[in-house]
Design a protein that fits this description.
12 helices, 8 strands, 8-stranded parallel β-sheet, TIM Barrel
Length: 311
């Protein structure tokens, strides 16, 4: 069973738009050293839809290399593409690579009915041995999972669900249906928002975008939760939620790059057409202040790097 906090890794590119593998591996090690439990690779944060399958495999290989230096870390590879054939090709390659699980968002851009989506996941599950998780992200895929969809997918061997909207009615129904009917089915929250109430329900894993730039805050929250230090967990949760609100001023991928620069770390670039604001933009200093206040509230030291791009 996957437990703790996973990060939807941002993917690092250089100024020319090529993968920056070495900088990416630095970031992966840094997050593991700060307590992150695993990676969710080439999803929305990770620019998967902007990458070729071979580029995504390079990211997966880099993650495997870094994870081998640590104990007990999880790797989930997101293999969802706009079409079934590309998804299966990537899924088969990941199956050979060896990861803890793979996940796929429903095929996007076009609008599909439930039977199209069910067949998409049947095709994936029928071609790999690695556990397959569906990825409920209706904002990008234009398809919203229902309990009926989930039950149908469980019949064909779906191992679990990563859920991004975390709608309380849907998530709780999926969770209790699996629990009461003793189904071997895992639920991973696709965001840190809602972590505490869903933990009390029984959820044990989340994918937290904030870990890209402030893994210490998420680790503080998760550790205190599992340690049943309620006061500390609730304080950390409020600090996390406040910082999350402040950081939702632009796309989360770009914001993560900006926050790393604000901490003094060279965070490379997102892939175009996504752009970062000019480094002399006051927003970087504002982010630095947001971060520092959050760390101070928790009594956690905020490590900074020596990159001076924004200072």
């Amino acid at each position: 069973m996957i437990q703790g906090s996973l990060v939807p890794n941002i993917t690092f590119f250089d100024v020319a738009g090529n993968l920056d593998i070495e900088r990416m591996k630095w970031h992966m090690r840094w997050m593991f050293e700060k307590g992150v439990d695993g990676f969710f690779l080439t999803g929305s944060y990770g620019a998967g839809p902007l990458m070729s399958n071979e580029e995504r495999l390079q990211v997966f290989r880099a993650a495997k290399e870094v994870a081998s230096e640590f104990e007990g870390k999880y790797i989930l590879a997101h293999v969802g593409c706009i079409d079934t054939q590309s998804t299966i090709e990537l899924a088969r390659a990941v199956d050979q690579l060896g990861v803890d699980a793979m996940s796929a968002v429903p095929p996007f851009y076009y609008k599909y009915d439930e039977e199209n989506i069910l067949q998409f996941y049947r095709d994936i599950c029928g071609n790999v041995r690695t556990p397959v998780f569906a990825y409920n992200n209706p904002e990008t895929s234009r398809f919203t999972f229902t309990i009926h969809t989930v039950k149908k997918l469980q019949e064909v061997g779906l191992a679990g669900l990563k859920d991004s909207p975390v709608d309380v009615g849907f998530v709780s129904t999926v969770f209790y249906d699996a629990k009461l009917n003793k189904k071997d089915f895992e639920l991973i929250l696709g965001t840190s928002k809602g972590w505490l109430p869903y933990y009390y329900m029984g959820a044990r894993a989340m994918i937290a975008g904030m870990s890209n730039y402030a893994p210490e805050i998420i680790t503080n929250l998760v550790k205190s939760t599992f340690d049943e230090d309620t006061d500390k967990a609730e304080k950390a949760y409020l600090v996390m939620m406040d910082l999350s609100r402040k950081m939702h001023f632009t796309d989360s991928t770009a914001a993560s790059h900006m926050a790393l620069y604000a901490r003094g770390f060279n965070a490379g670039y997102p892939r175009k057409p996504m752009l970062l604001p000019a480094f002399d933009t006051p927003k970087y200093r504002e982010i630095r202040d947001f971060l520092q206040r959050s760390f101070d509230e928790l009594g956690v030291e905020m490590e900074t790097g020596d990159d001076q791009s924004v200072f």
